[in-house]
Target: Amidohydrolase
Amino acid sequence: MDTPRPQAGTQAWLNQVREEPLDPDRPIIDPHHHLWRARGDWGPYLLGQLWADTGAGHNIQKTVFIECRAGYRTDGPEHLRSVGEAEFVAGIARAGREGGGGAEIAGFVGHTDLRQPEAQLREVLAAQVDAAQGLFRGIRHAGARDPQPQHLVIPGHGAEGLYADAGFRAGVALLGRLGYTYDTWHYHHQNADFAALARAVPGTTLVLDHFGTPLGVGPYAGQRDAIFSQWQRDIEAIARCPNVVAKLGGLAMPDNGFGWDNRALPAHSDELVEAQGRYYHHAIACFGPERCMFESNFPVDRRSLPYVSYWNAMKKMAAAYSADEQHAMFFGTAQRVYAL
Model:
């Protein structure tokens, strides 16, 4: 009788591919990960799971939690329920500091609706700052929206025309005036709208997550090269906005369509370099290393490859750049942008 194949993303599945960490002493900030108790068929990803990944061989010194609607309050005013996520993460970060021995959760990017009236938005931001206990760095109100979400494993729920909404732009501008960042997540066909947003709010630092998520499933399957060509032009336009910085990672989500989440074995670092290197090198050429930061997007990308393999791939690609440029992408840019 055949042994059942381990489910993608489980530790048993990931353990089938073991790589020795390259350049293990290099200091790294992982500026993009999530935490949650449980989510659908995704198991819990809490401090123990995070430390198992960040402590697997690479020198991950600090991390930044990015909102994922975890730990929300279940009662009280609707506009303040997302403050529960700040409380949730602050508690985990405090436990990490007290326990010692693992990467420090050094920053928190929360969520709120940036279209709400300014007085109410200021109230939420103040509550997030208080609840995050020194970790609050900014807001992600994602714009991801696709006309055929039924094809996506992780469909976005952004409002139609969000980036052009006057109230939304006012909220993003307020973040900049208060010294906070704006993170986003959207799909490749929304990149031009994001560039227009960036031009409209030059006083706010905007963080482009996951390369603008080039899709590769459903109606986008079989169009990778055509989508890449348009994506290249869009990234060039976005990079001309000096207030935008880019997170390089998050391309191993199921919806990117590389198919690693459907295989018997996880991806190896060499496969990531071969399949995705052109995205990384183009973004670095457009933004410059001082405006780029590598990101794991774990545990989401855990459905495709182990944590050690992701960072090995980054180190293999980064070998083409100078020592200062490498330090920027692994550590310095994230440290500066998120004031770590």
Residues 269-287 form the longest helix (19 residues). Residues 28-337 form a domain with the TIM Barrel fold (CATH 3.20.20.140). The CA atoms of residues 174 and 229 lie 34 Å apart. The chain has ten helices and eight strands.
